[in-house]
Structures are given as C-alpha cells and as structure tokens.
C-alpha cells in the first residue's frame, strides 16, 4: 500500500515543527520525505492521499497503561473496540493491563490478547503480565512463560501486594528475567476512601484517601528497587511528595521511571464537590498543589511519561452514588484535545506532551526511538490543532462513555492515524 501525506508540518528530531510538501509511505515504511524546499517525486502514485493542511504530523503516541477489558469484561470494552478508540486518539502502541478474566498471569491469556490485537490490527498491543498469580499479591506468576508469550513488563495494577517480602522476591525474580515492573504505588491500609483526603472530602462527607497512601509506598518501592536493581516504573503518580522522591532516586542513580495520568494534569478534587462520579478514579484526583507539582515534574524529567490510564465502563457502573461507582475515566481518544487544553493554559507545550508520549515512553519500554525519518516504520498521527468541536457520547469509539469531556467544546482533533503503513483511523 502507498500513502501520501501532503502540506503539513512534521515534528523533527529537534522537537520543532517543520513544514513539508510530502511524506510518502510504501509497504509500511516512510519511503521519502520532501520538505518545503524540495519537489516530490511526481511518479509516486498513492493508494490513499491525506491532505494535512494546517495539521501537525508526529510519531504515533505510546500509551503505557490501558485497560482493554478483554477477555472477560465485554460489557465494558473489547480489544477491537478499545484499540479502535486508541487509533482514534492517535495511539499506535499501547500497554494493556493484566486485569482481565481470567487474569493475564499465563501464557494462554497473553497469546489470546495478542491474537485479538492482531485481528483488530489498529495498533501494537504490548501485554503487561500479572506481577502475582491472579493479582492476589501472594504468589509469583510464571515470569519466564509470560515473557516468552510476549509480555513486555509486569504489573499488579491497583491490587495490593501482601507484604514487602513478597515484593522483594518478585523484584529479584523479575530482574533475573530482565523484566520491568510497573507498579501503582499503594499502601492498602491507608487506601480505604473514595477521593483525595482534603478539605473537600471533609466538606462533602466522603471518606478520603491521603497522599500518604501513595508516598509511603513510593518510598518502599524505590528502596526495594535499589536493592534488587530491577527497573521500577511507578504508574500514575498523583502526589507532590511522590515527584520529589522520584527526583531524588534518579539523582542517586536508581533505575526508576514514572508516569502520570493525563486527567491528573487537568483536574483537581474540587471537581468532586457536586458528587460527579465521572471523577471517581484511582489514584484519586488530588489538590491543585499536587497538580502543579506533577506538571513541574514532567518538565524537569522527574516524571517521564503521560498515560491515558484508560478505564472504560458501562453506563451503570458510573450511575451509582459516587462512593459506590467504579473508578476510572475513559480517556484514550481524547489525549490530544486534553494536551491542547494544557497548551492553551501555558502549562505544558504540545511538543512536550508529544515527547512524553513518544520518545520518553519508548525509552521506558526499551523500544526504538519514534521519529519521522526515511526508512522508519510508518506509525504516525495527523492532528488538526485548530478545529473546534463538541464531543458527543456517540462520537466515542470506546464502549466506555465515562469521559468528563462529553458535551464540552474541544479544540483539536485527530484527522488520521497510520499504523505500520496502514490507515488505522481516519476522521469523517
């Protein structure tokens, strides 16, 4: 298949937008790039032409934490629906959590997820294997077979590990298999509320989860990572003190990386005042000072990457009273409109957002650098940064319509996504 993209601006390796006349794609790879000072090969006949006038073209996004819900939770989502949603969000690679039924703690489940992803063929799916059997936090999974089946790292999601001795053994075992561990830091004994513990939770009468529930776990995990020398990736940090601890650990040379969920960069616990269960998520959305610390951590490099932390739910799961609703936000399709909000607020430039979801995410996964150069596999996003539109629930390809942006006026829309030289999404 041959695709030609014309008249846009590409993100070059210096992190700058560079106008181009044509990007030509042949048999899955970028065959030629013609900047504005060069003339495209007139003999190139494309099967598909994409006019990128007024659009940005950059490497496809890499999302480190996505719940595909498949197998086992088809009412919430499937590999087909959620990878289609990922493509609509400009994502060409994602890591899927092991929270499936059965849990992804075996070679058979990993291979099933990979087969479903290949059938859908919307983006690359990299499974995260279960850190412990059944995610129960008690016994180690079979790391060797998980790795052989295609798991890129290990995760226990938000299921607590029974004690530090088990965590230590798991870290040591993961290190012997050269597997990274993706850990959501949680001290279970302090994690019994439903929102951030602050004046808002006190005012509205909801039980709060203190930042301490995260920061104590971060301290323990960093120390265990230092002793075992495993690559520790801290998933979805939410608290200011967590950022400081990671920064200090990196300065000390400990092999630790971290990410933040995009909604933690935009919202605060003030949004919970009207008991809107859309904002019920784990970790909880915290205070304004925490939000600003997370943004600062991204800019300094203490936090490496941004994730959608995509958690699709059926309507009934979010229509319960706040404390009884299921936590999570459906966000993978709206990563770039949210990036545009941050850019418009002068809080995070769009190029830095893209870097956090391309090069820096690739570094965490030890993947090749995503870049737009001749000879590279064509994994690209074409993004219109100026279109203004109103999001309707039916616009979302994800089965989960649990987004706080529904009925909101948004700026910026993905025009097309190209995965391995094929169009995986194109806007109507």
Could you walk me through the main structural features you see in this protein, from its secondary elements to its overall organization?
- It is built from 12 helices and 19 strands.
- The chain has 428 residues and is an alpha/beta fold.
- The chain folds into 2 domains: 109 residues, Roll (Urease, subunit C, domain 1); 306 residues, Metal-dependent hydrolases (TIM Barrel, Alpha-Beta Barrel), CATH 3.20.20.
- The strands form 3 sheets. Strands 1, 2, 3, 4, 5, 6, 17, 18 and 19 form a 9-stranded mixed β-sheet that branches. An 8-stranded parallel β-sheet has the order 7-8-9-10-11-14-15-16, with helices on both faces. It has a two-stranded parallel ribbon with strand order 12-13.
- β7, α1 and β8 form a beta-alpha-beta unit.
- α2 packs parallel to α3, α4 crosses α6 and α7 runs parallel beside α8.
- It is globular, with a radius of gyration of 21 Å.
- The model has no long low-confidence stretch (mean pLDDT 97).
Q: Count of DSSP E strands?
A: 19
Radius of gyration, whole Å: 21 Å
Question: Average pLDDT, to the nearest integer?
Answer: 97
* Portion in beta strands: 15-25%
Distance between the termini: 21 Å
- Give the CATH architecture of the largest domain: Alpha-Beta Barrel
Helix-residue proportion = 25-40%
CATH overall fold name of the largest domain: TIM Barrel
At the fourth level of CATH, the homologous superfamily of the largest domain is: Metal-dependent hydrolases
Which outline best applies? globular
From the helix content, strand content and strand pairing, which structural class follows?
A: alpha/beta
